Amino acid sequence: MARIAYVNGRYVPHASAQVHIDDRGYQFADSVYEVCEIVDGMMIDRTGHLDRLDRSLGELAMGWPLDRSALARVMIEVARRNRVRDGLVYVQVSRGVAPRDHPFPPAATRPAIVITARRVDPAAVARKAAAGVAVITVPDNRWERVDIKTTGLLPNVLAKQQALDSGAAEAWLVDADGMVTEGASTNAWIVTGQGTLVTRPARSGILRGITRATVLRAATDLGLEVEERPFSVGEAHGAREAFMTSATSRVMPVVAIDGRPVANGHPGQTAMALRAAYLDAAEKTPLGRTR
Ligand code: PDD
Prior knowledge:
Order of helices and strands: EEHEEHHEEHEHEEEEHEEHEEEHE
CATH superfamily of the largest domain: D-amino Acid Aminotransferase, subunit A, domain 2
Bound molecules: N-(5'-phosphopyridoxyl)-D-alanine
Structural class: alpha+beta
CATH topology of the largest domain: D-amino Acid Aminotransferase, Chain A, domain 2
Number of helices: 8
Helix content: 25-40%
Strand content: 25-35%
Radius of gyration: 19 Å
């Protein structure tokens, strides 16, 4: 089945979908994005992702490419047209197409939008979660506005590749004080010896993950103690459990950090309980029949 993408108002074959060479997303990473998970024919936390898209656009003084409710419907339609029952929807909005020049283009320049969808094999992800993944720690050398979900991800790309090259699945980024900020494309969590969940506050230094927010609600539902505070690499090395969260990995146990096993080197009970409780705490929007 041919994949379909939505590009600036048209549904087009994914294989031949194109944006202009003067698109500011391409020229300057002057663009923002969202990734939304689809589980068993339901879009997860679409409202949260659209709220964050609204915030990212606002922080960069960028307009909506089409109104919010229409964009929400197109996300569903792209998933349906690609017959995605389990997978991801990707939304990217750029400041539009204009001759290359650093200042914002004329106000009449229309933001450009691309929406794509792809399938993910849920069994493969479940197997990965059952085994857990390894992470490495690397310096966080990103700009300060990592709260805005821009496509300017080069430090994240380099950190992720370094992780893969060393046999790990993710890089945890570490600030100048030796505290973990977040992963290259995930939020970072540990569980202390006392069983308290710890994750960095969303005030600064991290992206305010939508999965993170849902996992915080799931943790409350499970009656877990939670502390939103920075944690150090040393504390992570000695933690009872570690895990990461994102729309692409949901709750993914971390079983090794910098080559050292976390506790006994197996996925922790708390991480697995949160993974199981996660969907109950999430908003689920049915796609309807995928055609
Ligand atoms: N990444 N931190 C960073 C730097 C991220 O890029 C992401 C998401 C997260 C988790 O956010 P959420 O729970 O809303 O997915 C945290 C997406 C999935 C990506 O870039 O593919």
